[in-house]
Write a structure and sequence with these properties.
Elements (H helix, E strand, L loop, with lengths): L9 H30 L6 E3 L2 E3 L2 H11 L4 H4 L4 E7 L3 H13 L1 E7 L4 H6 L4 E6 L17 E7 H13 L9 H41 L2 H5 L5 H11 L10 H9 L5 H21 L12 H12 L1 H15 L2 H8 L2 H12 L8
Parallel strand pairs: 3-6
Antiparallel strand pairs: 1-3, 2-3, 4-5, 5-6
Helix pairs in contact: 1-4, 7-9, 11-12, 12-13, 13-15
Length: about 350
Amino acid sequence: MSKKKLIVDTKNISQTFRKSEPLYKRLDDEALFSIKAELDKTDIKIHSIPSRIKTLESFLNKINLYQIEKPFEKINDIIGLRVICLFLADIEKIGDIVRNTFEVIKEDNKIDNSKFASFGYLSVHFIVKLGKSFSGTRYNDICEIPFEIQVRTIAMDAWANISHYLEYKTDKDIPDELKRDFYALSGMFYVADKHFQLFFEQRKENTEEIRELFEKGKETDINSQPINLDTLKLFLRDKLPNYPPENDVSLLVNSLNKAGFKTIGEINHIFEKGIKSGEAYFKDINYFNEDYPMVNNAALLTFILLINDFNFYVYFSEASINDFLDVNIKNSLQNSKGLYKEMWETTFGKYRIENL
């Protein structure tokens, strides 16, 4: 005997939903603020934390699709947050933050559940509420309303979005001739996540070894290190500890390599002789003022090299003239190193260490 179809009281449900929308908006804001505040206390790298409130249309569709009686009690994802992180190992850390920040009603790990993993729907889902830890009149109306938090990596989110676009809700939806490729793609995203985590851990180990080398190693071993992002950041931290770090050191790494610098020793040789010249230059151009109390370490190294190494000055100038000079001046400069020499001497000559 077939189950009797639920008659949905659309009018009353719609009225209740509309009346509750301001509460849903407040809860969404509070939940988003709370999770961000807790994550900001950690070193976990977060890609994004999107949130959404179901539309009335979506709410009614879900009631009809799943024949849900008492929908305001049974549907727990009217408000939904998604924490998208970079690495697999961070999912458990974020899960701990969710458990400690909110009152967890239900937890569903779809990453370790082989049934879901085989289809490719990967994330950890929490149904939570603000609970008793959020006390006061500000929370009285919203602290008992359940909402959903999903935690996943970028790779999981990418696959979820692609598979959602393909409209395959279960493996029964997939044509037999496409199943092998579909599962292979799902596996590729999962393997990518594993390898991103492995690479991240290996990089941490490598960086720690280089850090110990810079702190305790022989100068000859330090100087023989190739210039890359990790070695240059540690060099800057070691040599200029009182200067704020530059977040994006990769541009300087690229410039150094293209200018012919290969090892840390090659730049250290110029740095040791030229540190006073770089500081004198920034002092004279009044960079050290209330607006800019301290130049960052990468900028200071850049100008130490510009002042004291002509080849680096030529490379740096040629890399910049496409943006700042018209074609005639550019051609003149590129055809005559003598003009570069004159500009270099005029701009930086008095700052070189032998002239200070």
